Every structure is written in structure tokens, then in C-alpha cells.
């Protein structure tokens, strides 16, 4: 009872402080809101929407069941999750956060995961997308595309290690599993896929419409959180709360022989990764390795903005948020550690630091890949407006039918 009262007071006080900040700094809050909105409709919406829609169709057509049967002998021994976790892992790596949480929640709603398995899975399928790490952070902020290889390698290795650690999570709560190691059968996988498709009673048009509506609904929620935390981050800075919190970080930075100028960027990154990464890239007093280590931690921790999005998605299920939050802290430290450990053997000795800053990694070298991020910013708003119009049209038409 006492804890609930304290929580009520803290939440109410936080809301009052934010309201005072909005009244005191209306122009700064407006600029931050516009910045968050631009980020959402230029990058986030057009980059995530195709993955969300396709994933819904893959689930409806039974392809996910097929993947689950094939990957069961791999995902179960390594991460102690069903084979469908392989689908969530792959889609999370390709599309970035909070996709892993969305797909995990969907698999839990489909009863393909137990609660413990879902909590394990969501903990290590929270990835920053390659587009963001290479396009926004490496090229946009650091003007060094080679750095993206270092950040991506540390990010992915850290998350895989989190998955291997989380396999031990919840073993006391988990019921005995009837899984037996066996060779995956294509025939069994195809049978499962066909059975799932036959159980899907919605016609193709209805399935496609539901996929669009569900995906856009999730993206609207994500956009709200991006704008909200963009404003909160700006207000905390102008109210000197960020500076106050940074004093504690300075002590840790001095211990690591990092410049104290990184403290403000670090605190900002704990709230919102884009601003934190951008501020970190501009600290002239820090070496590139030091800035890469801090950025790796920020990307691994994901920021409270991303975590709030995940919490909102998980709230629709019985999946607990605390394991995910713990995993983000661990991922942040592991990603930073991998950046430090691999910096000399990978970035320096292999010669990534000698690559011209306007070049790109081999797997991004194609006619459109070099300027993919810039093109996304040019055409992203048009894609967003088009699909929002489609969203309104489908919703209006269905309301007329009902």
C-alpha cells in the first residue's frame, strides 16, 4: 500500500514538472516535437511499415509455422525458445526495434510461446536496424560509414550473448518441456504451414486489410512515444535536470579516463538514442574509440523512448517488462565491451579506419544503397501520407459496413 502511494506521488510530481516545463519553454518543446515528428514520418514509418505488413501475412499464411519447425533444433538448444523465435530474431535484426517486441507479443497471443519463452525471446530480439546504424549514426552523425561495421558487430554480438544468458532465465518457473532433439522434416513443416493456412478463415482481402490496419496502428503508437520523449529530453535539458544527472556520470567517466564532456550526451542517450548518438559524435574532446564505446552502450540500452514503446506493446499480453529492461542494461555493457575489445583487431588492424569516409561497406554498395538514408528522408513523408490515407479509407469503409 505504501509503495503504491509513493508511486502515485512520483508519477503525479513528474507530470506536474513536465507541465511546468511545457509552459516555461513552449518554443523549445514545439521544436522538439517537430523534430520527433520528422524522424517518425521520414524514417521510422516508411522503414518499419513493410516489415510489419509482411510479417502479418507470413503469420496468416503459415510461413512462420514452417520456419518454426525447421529452426526448432537450433533455437531450442541455444536459447531455449521454440523455432518460431528464429523468425522473430531475423525480423528484429532486419527491421530494428521495437519489431522484436511486436512479433514476440504476436507469437504469445498465438499461443506459440509460453510466458517464460516470450520473456526470453523479447530480451534478445531488440535490435537497432542496419539502416539506422549505417545511415543515421555512422554516415549521418560520424561521417564515417566504416564505423557502422564496428557498431553493428558489437551490437549483434552483444544481443546474441544476452540471448545465451537469458536461456537460464525462469527455469524454476518453467514447466518441463517435452522437446526431443530430432532432425527437422520439410514434410512436417509443410504440413504445419498448410494446416495453419486452412485454419485462417479470413479471405485474402480481409487479411491484407487487417495487416495494414494493425501495422499502422502500432506505428502511430510508436510515433507518439518518439514525439513525447523528444519533448521530454529537451525539457529535461533546459530545466538543468540532465546536467544534474550528468554529475554522477562524470565520476564514472573519470574512472574510465573518458572526457567529462561525454556525460550530457550519455544522459541524453539514455532517454532517446538518436539525440544521444548525435551529441556523442560531436564531442571533440573524445577519441573516436571513446565515442564509439558510448554510442554502442546507447544503442544497446535502446533508450527509455524505445523501452516505453516495448512496454506498451507487451502490456497487451502477460509478458513481463522487467526481464526486457534487465537485458537492455546487460546489452548496453556488452556492446560497449565488445567495441573496446574489437577496436584494435577489427577497426584498426584490418584497416577500417583507413577507408574513405564517403565509402560504404561491401554489402551496402549498390546504385541505391549509398544514398538510401537520404532518399528515405526525401520520399519517406510521401509514403507515410499515402498509407495514412489508406488507413483512414479502410477504417472508414469498415465502419460503414458495420
From TrEMBL:
UniProt keyword Membrane, yes or no: yes
Segments traversing the membrane: 6-26, 47-71, 83-101, 121-142, 148-169, 207-229, 235-256, 292-315, 321-343, 379-396
Record carries keyword Nucleotidyltransferase: no
Domain Nucleoside transporter/FeoB GTPase Gate: 44-140
Annotated keywords: Membrane, Transmembrane, Transmembrane helix
InterPro entries per the UniProt record, alphabetical: Gate_dom (IPR011642), Spore_IM_YlbJ (IPR014226)
Pfam family, one: Gate
NCBIfam families: spore_ylbJ
Protein name according to UniProt: Sporulation protein
Natural source organism: Peribacillus loiseleuriae
Amino acid at each position: 500500500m505504501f509503495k503504491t502511494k509513493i508511486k502515485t506521488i512520483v508519477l503525479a510530481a513528474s507530470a506536474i514538472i513536465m507541465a511546468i516545463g511545457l509552459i516555461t519553454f513552449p518554443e523549445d518543446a514545439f521544436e522538439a516535437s517537430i523534430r520527433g515528428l520528422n524522424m517518425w514520418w521520414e524514417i521510422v514509418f516508411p522503414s518499419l511499415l513493410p516489415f510489419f505488413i509482411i510479417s502479418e501475412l507470413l503469420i496468416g499464411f503459415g510461413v512462420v509455422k514452417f520456419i518454426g519447425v525447421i529452426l526448432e533444433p537450433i533455437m531450442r538448444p541455444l536459447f531455449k525458445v521454440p523455432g518460431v523465435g528464429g523468425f522473430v530474431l531475423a525480423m528484429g535484426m532486419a527491421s530494428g526495434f521495437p519489431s522484436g517486441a511486436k512479433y514476440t507479443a504476436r507469437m504469445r497471443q498465438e499461443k506459440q510461446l509460453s510466458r517464460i519463452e516470450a520473456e526470453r525471446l523479447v530480451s534478445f530480439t531488440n535490435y537497432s536496424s542496419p539502416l539506422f546504424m549505417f545511415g543515421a549514426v555512422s554516415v549521418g552523425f560520424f561521417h564515417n560509414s566504416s564505423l557502422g561495421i564496428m557498431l553493428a558487430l558489437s551490437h549483434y554480438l552483444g544481443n546474441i550473448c544476452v540471448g545465451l544468458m537469458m536461456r537460464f532465465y525462469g527455469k524454476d518457473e518453467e514447466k518441463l518441456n517435452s522437446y526431443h532433439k530430432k532432425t527437422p522434416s520439410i514434410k512436417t513443416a509443410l504440413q504445419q504451414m498448410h494446416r495453419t493456412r486452412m485454419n485462417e478463415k479470413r479471405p485474402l482481402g480481409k487479411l491484407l486489410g487487417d495487416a495494414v490496419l494493425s501495422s499502422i496502428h502500432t506505428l502511430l503508437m510508436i510515433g507518439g512515444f518518439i514525439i513525447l520523449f523528444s519533448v521530454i529530453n529537451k525539457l529535461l535539458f533546459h530545466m538543468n535536470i540532465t546536467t544534474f544527472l550528468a554529475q554522477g556520470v562524470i565520476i564514472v567517466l573519470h574512472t574510465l579516463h573518458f572526457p567529462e564532456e561525454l556525460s550530457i550526451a550519455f544522459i541524453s542517450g539514455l532517454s532517446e538514442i538518436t539525440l544521444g548518438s548525435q551529441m556523442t559524435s560531436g564531442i571533440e574532446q573524445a577519441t573516436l574509440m571513446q565515442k564509439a564505446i558510448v554510442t554502442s552502450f546507447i544503442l544497446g540500452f535502446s533508450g527509455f523512448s524505445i523501452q516505453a514503446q516495448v512496454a506498451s506493446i507487451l502490456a497487451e499480453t502477460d509478458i513481463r517488462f522487467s526481464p526486457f529492461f534487465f537485458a537492455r542494461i546487460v546489452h548496453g555493457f556488452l556492446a560497449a565491451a565488445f567495441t573496446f575489445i574489437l577496436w584494435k583487431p577489427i577497426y584498426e588492424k584490418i584497416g577500417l579506419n583507413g577507408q574513405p569516409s564517403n565509402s560504404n561497406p561491401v554489402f551496402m554498395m549498390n546504385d541505391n544503397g549509398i544514398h538510401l538514408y537520404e532518399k528515405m528522408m526525401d520520399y519517406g513523408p510521401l509514403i507515410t501520407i499515402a498509407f495514412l490515407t489508406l488507413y483512414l479509407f479502410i477504417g472508414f469503409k469498415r465502419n460503414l459496413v458495420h
